[in-house]
Write a structure and sequence with these properties.
The protein has about 150 residues and is an all-alpha fold. The protein is built from 6 helices and no strands.
Length: about 150
């Protein structure tokens, strides 16, 4: 019984992470030029073409991660590891650049302290999910009952 509770908890965390990635992508899609300017404000990439490329790659990546997590498609843990890698990478960037607004949720302003705290929580949820759901899953992903409605909305 305790094991099944941990699995349900991990699956709920996986679904919520997916919803968070998906909502972040949708907010960025609403204003891609704003997201590109937020990337530029980090001062790490200075080429306008490279910034535009990063904006065009990051948004679909977040969509794919979000939908995969909401659907329970784990790819032998690869989805969790990709999410963890993104979180670590962006946390390092935030710690380095200390931007006024991370750009995580498009027009919603998050400072570096909030961003690092959010990323730490997301990292822990993803790591817990990766550990607990490693052997779980089926060949065909199953949406959480609310997942279909979130994707539709």
């Amino acid at each position: 019984m305790q094991g099944s509770f941990a699995i349900r908890l991990a699956r709920t965390g996986e679904f919520l992470l997916g919803a968070l990635f998906l909502s972040a992508a949708v907010l960025k899609l609403a204003n891609v030029p704003l997201f590109a300017s937020q990337i530029l404000s980090y001062g790490v990439i200075t080429s306008p073409k490279a910034v535009a490329f990063m904006a065009e790659v990051l948004v679909p990546t977040e969509v794919l991660l979000g939908v995969a997590m909401m659907a329970g498609l784990r790819l032998r843990g690869g989805v969790f590891y990709a999410a963890i890698a993104m979180l670590v990478f962006f946390s390092v960037l935030v710690a380095y650049a200390w931007p006024a607004n991370c750009g995580c949720f498009g027009p919603i302003k998050l400072g570096p302290v909030e961003t690092l705290a959010k990323n730490a929580i997301m990292f822990l949820v993803a790591a817990f999910g990766a550990a607990m759901l490693r052997g779980e899953g089926s060949a065909e992903p199953q949406f959480h009952p609310l997942g279909k409605w979130v994707v539709v909305l």
